[in-house]
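User: Sequence in, structure out. Go.
Assistant: Echoing your sequence, followed by the structure tokens.
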Amino acid sequence: MASSTDRPDRAPRAASGAARRPSAGPVRLRTGVWLRAVALVVLAALTGCGAGSGTGARDDPAATGTTAREHPSATAPVPGAAGTAQGRPATEAPAVIPGLGPRTRAWIPGDARQVVVVTGRDRNANHSQAVLHRHTGTGWQAGPAWPARNALRGWTDDHWAGDLRSPIGVYSLTDAGGLLPDPGTRLPYDRSDGFAVSGTGFEGEPLEGSFDYVVAIDYNREPGTSPLDLTRPLGADRGGGIWLHVDHDGPTQGCVSLKKQHMRDLLLALDPALHPVVVMGDAASLRE
């Protein structure tokens, strides 16, 4: 479950090449869930995966958490455009990303050319699927579908620290890091022992190695800094430390987790020049 609370203070890291995107509107979080074991409490003090902070990217287009969906983009797909490849030649990419409704598409910045779509099975489920889409110039080309996990209690568009739900929204992806050396990503990468984690998750699974590779989701954080940075533009009560990280075979506190190889593949694929974002939430919400 990688902890959703903040880590010990670390000096902010200067942005190194990643485009600094405006933060997105706050996702309203609701605190109030106590971890079941002392080990989890200790982990919460050390790690950053979980109850994200501040902007549920769904109703408030004005926040500082670096959500990518502040205002509908002038170049956003026109509502009603075909969203699937049905009836198209196999080589032709769809004009819009399948599964995303007009409101969700409007949150995606017009310059985003890489979109990681994390689709939850339903509002209260902690299993999901992640697909990296890249714009080809004429349409969106989907990569392989990777199994993923999200927060223990599912999804929310009103995220608060400790609610054990992942924030729904569209967020930029500007910074990476991990306990392991940089595998060759083009994102700024902070290799640090601060990503070490121990203890067990919600299902008794070991958490060690969960932060071997991390991509910070720009929810209530300062883009251009290490994922370990504790700056919370919307305030600590809105959570923080929402990451994409290595799966530990159990639900998270707010992050999205992928198998280790898939995290490495994602790190190698993401390109700041393509302004990557993550679109995340339960399937019904993303269809809106």
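User: And one key feature?
Assistant: The chain has four helices and twelve strands.
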